[in-house]
């Protein structure tokens, strides 16, 4: 691609391009031209990828401004949002005690809840998934239960866990756990069931022990499936924590939004929503990147 | 016991039952194989030749009869009967080196030091000319190279019998010929006992000391055993016009296509 690209400009500039006799191509190895023309495709592909979302974003902001810019609009226009919340945006680290803290502290608190709940879900989910995937009886016994439990909306668990834990902290973590554990279990078990018989035969011939099979065959062969489950799980837990925090109160981006609504700080809500979206996106990319790194080579055969 | 054969299939029968139906795949298979012998099993697809190999490998338990290796009953898989699988079965997340090392570390973890195990892995990769690709992953090397690694992994276990299940079936003709030469060379150097499943007549005649020809299923059994009386080392170019080679080849073809022609269903 690049090689033909750097060869073409000169004949093209000379008028109508001759249909590439090889002699013309060899004739122009100018260094600086080569660097520029080599960069050009990279830049243009970068532009092709970043321009469309930028255009859409600008168009959306302009549209929003036009819709809400007039006096008496129910929702603030983007310019008003920025003006209202400028202090909040530029200083995410302030801490006036209580729940009057910068965005960083709210998000960090929400993330720490997700980290704890999601980590427990990952460990339990992978363990149960391997069990269900490997044992026909475990699958027959547990799978119907999982299929029913996983459809229960996250917040429906909250009253029950508040009753059980009698404390909002562990309750929120339990909601995260119970929300994100199902896709991890289900994807892991599918992965274990899909391990090629060949790998099991190899393990049998080498006489790997139960534990060695688990570590050296089952886990690596299942990694792509596990990370699919983890990705879905982390997305769900981020969805759940915002809603759960609205109910349990305290520091956290979810309660921040609820508190802003109660004090009619609509601009704060909009900024918080942007943060929530960006953090959710970053969480998804993080798991996807780790998964891609850990599972390199495992899918190809 | 001293007169007992090295490897013996005794009255092997195999019936698969699934649900209410059962199908008899093998019946009364009797075979003795000497130490260092290269035996090919040939037959049409569905004749149970892979089943026979899997019984020897311990991956399947025969319904009737027993397999004896050096007088001991075979009842589980083990590294003394290393298998070269048809589709190489390398673990894609391990490197070429790692795929051999996982077997070496397990099989000789107690008898060899770490350095010795490394040397042994490299020795076996050398044997199949894959030492220079040690850090590649299976999806980065060609099909023939993958199968070389599969062979190295099996050899590295120092098996009493090397089992090969249509090892070259998935390869193109040139690569196959190249690998056949490698296997002949390794067999000449190491003197392994080999049982190879194949459906390639030329391959069977070229490599084997004896060819076991299977009748068609259901209830397949050994139809005939042909001794290949060709001196080693054998060179494929010389053999093309060799009278004994031509006779053996004709005998196998005659068995497969005149007397035990596969019914039209598989055509």
Feature tags:
heterodimer; A: 301 residues; MetI-like fold; 13 helices; 0% strand; disordered N terminus; B: 267 residues; alpha/beta; Rossmann fold; 2 domains; 8 helices
Give an account of the 3D structure.
The complex is a heterodimer of chains A (301) and B (267). Chain A is mostly helical. Chain A has a domain at 103-300: MetI-like fold (Orthogonal Bundle). Chain A has helices at 2-7, 9-13, 22-26, 31-68, 78-90, 103-134, 136-149, 157-165, 168-193, 197-206, 210-248, 253-262, 266-294. The longest helix of chain A is centred in the C-terminal third of the chain and has 39 residues, at 210-248. The radius of gyration of chain A is 27 Å and the shape is flat. Chain B has helices at residues 49-57, 96-107, 114-127, 143-156, 173-190, 201-207, 236-239, 243-259; strands at residues 7-18, 21-33, 38-42, 64-69, 72-73, 83-84, 161-165, 193-198, 210-214, 222-227. In chain B, the strands form two sheets. In chain B, strands 6-7-8-3-9-10 form a six-stranded mixed beta sheet, with helices on both faces. In chain B, a hairpin with a 2-residue loop joins strand 1 (7-18) and strand 2. Chain B is globular. Chains A and B meet through helix 10 and helix 11 of A and helix 2 of B.
